[in-house]
Design goal:
This protein is an alpha+beta fold. About 50% of the residues lie in helices and about 20% in strands. It contains 14 helices and 14 strands.
């Protein structure tokens, strides 16, 4: 455990995993986790996480995703003259420029691109920067929310009101409309900041997960397991559904009040030009009343009185602007500007009988698939998990039952990976 990890161990639980899947020859996904090195660093730049899913022939997609994660994380940390929203946006645009330039310089890499979804946990909350169809989720209690909008053909058509929720089979589901790299210009979505609460769990993932595991299943896994187990269970479930694509997940859970308490504390001297300084409510009241009076006086033909009202309105506006600038310059109270329109999807993920039925079906399929093989399976751990799951169902503790079914799946999948590794060797 390095220093940056240890200082946050009491308030942050996180894990990351990237898997090639079952049908791809190489892994074109990439991710970076960059925790703040100190309390001052957290105040200024927060904790940073990013997932990217590359596209392109040969090694192009792999290179694009690697460039995106490395460039965005590095540039974001370096742009200390900018506020976090400005810095993450400029870091994304810088990555787009570098990937595009690399693609233009070589025929082998021409047209390469990558999705990129970054999460920054800041004193003001969770900020997300996003392009493509990788996703950011937040689990709070038993409700999971998708914080990002998929830049895909399906989602864009649906947003335009041209298609019902049920997607016709003739609409390709894997065509994305935005990514880093293919074009010189790209539009980046900013979402948040979303204020933090203890227990909030965030997930970044490539579509190798979200294409195979439903939102309610994702939420159930996140709610039942610690971060490391949740990350592995999600990868296992995606592979058990066929694993047609690379699978990358980052799970981040707020476990202590330190990050939440800090949300109300501003770093002294921290420059945040994209945030809006607070203005005394009386100024807004005077300006609004003066503006209304001006309109009314004009309607009644009292031109001189209306002119006076206009002067008062303008004076109040100037006072508001002056107070904002003054408060910002002296490090006074500021209100974070809210970006984006998320969440875009939400559902309840309370462990239920239908969700448990899906898990038991997977468990039975695993047992049937391995029972007839002459493999050195240690059944004790698997059966112990199932026994605890059965007892939990009888006690009507569905959360515990789901947890044990998921652990049974992980126990079996771990052994199957070992057996496959021996065979491949």
């Amino acid at each position: 455990m390095d220093a940056s990890t240890s200082i946050w161990s009491e308030c942050l639980d996180y894990a990351a995993s990237s898997n090639v899947g079952l049908r791809r020859p190489n892994n074109q996904d990439a991710y970076v986790v960059s925790l703040a090195g100190s309390q001052a660093d957290f105040q200024e730049r927060g904790h940073f996480f990013i997932v990217a899913d590359g596209m392109g022939a040969h090694a192009a997609g792999e290179l694009a995703s690697k460039m995106a994660t490395e460039v965005v994380s590095l540039v974001y940390r370096k742009r200390l003259d900018q506020s976090p929203p400005e810095a993450i946006l400029s870091a994304m645009l810088d990555a787009n420029y570098q990937i595009n330039s690399r693609g233009q310089a070589s025929p082998d890499f021409r047209g390469m691109g990558t999705t990129a979804t970054a999460l920054v946990l800041l004193p003001t909350g969770a900020l997300v920067a996003h392009v493509g169809d990788s996703r950011a989720y937040r689990l709070r209690g038993t409700r999971i929310e998708q914080l990002t909008f998929d830049h895909s053909l399906v989602w864009e058509i649906r947003a335009a009101g041209q298609m019902p929720d049920l997607v016709p089979n003739y609409i390709p589901k894997n065509i994305i409309t935005r990514s880093l790299g293919p074009n010189r210009a790209v539009q980046i979505d900013l979402e948040g900041p979303h204020p933090l609460q203890v227990g909030d769990t965030f997930l970044l993932c490539s579509d190798g997960l979200s294409g195979q595991v439903t939102d309610d299943e994702i939420g159930m896994v996140l709610s039942c397991l610690p971060a490391a187990e949740a990350a592995q269970a999600l990868v296992d479930l995606a592979n058990l559904r066929g694993g047609p694509d690379n699978i990358t997940v980052i799970v981040v859970r707020v476990t202590g009040p330190q990050l939440v308490q800090e949300a109300a504390v501003e770093a002294p001297g921290n420059r945040q030009p994209s945030l809006i300084a607070a203005v005394h409510p009386m100024i807004w009241t005077v300006m609004g009343m003066a503006a209304l009076a001006t309109v009314g006086l004009l309607a009644m033909g009292y031109l001189l009185a209306a002119l006076l009202g206009l002067v008062v309105t303008a004076a109040a506006g100037i006072a508001a602007m002056t107070q904002r600038r003054s408060a910002a310059n002296r490090g006074g109270p500021i209100e974070p500007r809210r970006f984006g329109r998320g969440p875009y999807m939400a559902c309840d993920c309370t462990p239920s009988a239908p969700l448990l039925a899906r898990l038991t079906d997977i468990v039975e399929q695993l047992r049937a698939a391995t029972a007839g093989e002459n493999w050195p399976i240690d059944w004790a751990g698997f059966d112990n998990c199932l026994a605890r799951a059965t007892a939990a169902v009888q006690a009507e503790n569905l959360t515990e039952a789901a947890r044990e079914y998921l652990r049974a799946i992980m126990v079996m999948m771990s052994q199957l990976r070992q057996i496959r590794g021996v065979k491949d060797a």
